[in-house]
């Protein structure tokens, strides 16, 4: 009989378990940002008539705050809320060293439709303060999503990097019921980036783990232990349609998408030790990526698709390695500490972020510059 506990242990370097209640909002809070955070003031939007269920300006404020890139300034001193640039006291904001000011308005149009207008302003450009502005009409149910899109636009305008506030997150929620026997219910949940609007796309009595988004954000690959065996599935988030990808004996785990969405890197133990394979989703052809007597896991394709990060204990402890998919060359890239794992790429491919155990045996999130090798604990 397949030892499910053994497979679960080998598939995980660490697990994050979410506790009931099932419909609780996932609260994401950032307690510290960068040292040079941009001072910005998001003045509460002017709301005329019927007040909507979503507070657009507050959502924008929370998004920017949670990014860690901005210092949100106190706006309580603003007595008259401006909806147009001419109503902004730019002299005051310059006196408190604010770099940017956001104002806006929300107007009901009837039939649960609202018109939202925002302005991003530079208080130091006298007579030419408007950096960007936009007016959008949406249904009330779409106001929260619109607020995230506005936050994305503001973030990109100021930092030059696309925002992620309007994206989705996926996680596994575990609800434990009873004392004896204990019955666990597993839910694969998709939610807004700030944890709101959680929707379960799969509910199971068997463990679910390792959810991984496709590049187009339309599909999720994950591991399910249905019928007491590990299998990799893909679910269409919109339709819920599931497709079985692999179901070999023992380990099927750690699915990771190629950047074109046509292949999955998967950890399999069908030939012995856990190794990384690439499977073409159209042809089902499986090609080995790593070959060693060690445990190789946690693959991550590079943004250009030419290399792959993975975790291996081939050097005696879990460390991060890089494989050139053309030449086949493998090199170890982490040396600081006895445990480095679960690496992810920065969008530009110049650095990676990973789980790092420090000398006090505490776990941190660290970033490493691939060119210099410099490691920064975040």
Give a summary of the structure in a few sentences:
This protein is mainly β.
Structure description:
By secondary structure, this protein is mainly beta. The chain has two domains: 4-24 and 167-377, Neuraminidase; 38-159, Rossmann fold. Helix content is 11%, strand content 41%. It contains four helices and 25 strands. It has helices at residues 4-11, 56-67, 90-95, 143-159, and strands spanning 38-42, 46-47, 70-72, 100-110, 113-121, 130-139, 168-177, 183-192, 199-204, 208-213, 219-224, 231-236, 242-246, 252-257, 263-268, 275-280, 286-288, 296-301, 307-312, 319-324, 330-332, 340-345, 351-357, 363-369, 375-377. The strands form six sheets. Strands 1, 2, 3, 4, 5 and 6 form a six-stranded mixed sheet that branches. A hairpin with a 5-residue loop joins strand 14 and strand 15. Helix 2 crosses helix 4 (143-159). The chain is globular. Mean pLDDT is 90; it is low at 4-26.
């Amino acid at each position: 009989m397949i030892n499910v506990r053994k497979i679960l242990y080998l598939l995980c370097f660490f697990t994050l378990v979410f506790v009931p209640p099932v419909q609780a909002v996932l609260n994401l809070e950032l307690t510290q940002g960068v040292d040079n955070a941009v001072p910005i003031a998001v003045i509460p939007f002017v709301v005329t008539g019927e007040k909507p269920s979503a507070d657009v300006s507050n959502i924008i404020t929370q998004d920017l705050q949670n990014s860690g890139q901005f210092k949100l300034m106190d706006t309580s001193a603003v007595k008259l809320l401006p909806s147009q640039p001419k109503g902004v006291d730019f002299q005051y904001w310059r006196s408190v060293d604010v770099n940017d000011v956001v104002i806006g308005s929300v107007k009901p149009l009837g039939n649960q439709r609202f018109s939202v207008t925002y302005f991003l302003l530079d208080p130091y450009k006298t007579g030419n303060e408007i950096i960007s502005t936009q007016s959008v009409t949406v249904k009330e149910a779409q106001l929260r999503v619109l607020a995230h899109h506005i936050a994305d636009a503001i973030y990109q305008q100021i930092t030059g990097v696309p925002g992620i506030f309007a994206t989705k997150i996926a996680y596994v929620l575990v609800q434990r019921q009873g004392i004896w026997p204990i019955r666990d219910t597993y839910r694969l949940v998709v939610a807004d980036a700030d944890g709101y609007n959680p929707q379960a796309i799969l509910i199971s009595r068997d463990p679910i783990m390792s959810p991984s988004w496709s590049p187009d954000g339309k599909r999720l690959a994950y591991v399910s232990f249905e019928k007491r065996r590990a299998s990799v599935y893909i679910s269409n988030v919109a339709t819920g349609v599931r497709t079985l990808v692999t179901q070999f004996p023992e380990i099927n785990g750690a699915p990771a998408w190629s950047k074109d969405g046509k292949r999955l890197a998967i950890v399999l133990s069908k030939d012995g030790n856990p190794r990384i394979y690439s499977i073409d989703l159209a042809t089902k052809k499986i090609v080995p990526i790593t070959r060693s007597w060690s445990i190789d896991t946690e693959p991550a394709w590079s943004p250009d698709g030419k290399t792959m990060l993975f975790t291996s204990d081939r050097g005696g402890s879990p460390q991060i390695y890089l494989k050139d998919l053309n030449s086949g060359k493998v090199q170890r890239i982490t040396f600081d500490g006895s445990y480095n794992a679960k690496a992810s790429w920065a969008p530009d491919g110049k650095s990676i972020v990973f789980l790092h155990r420090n000398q006090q045996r505490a776990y941190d999130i660290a970033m490493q510059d691939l060119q210099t090798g410099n490691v920064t604990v975040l």
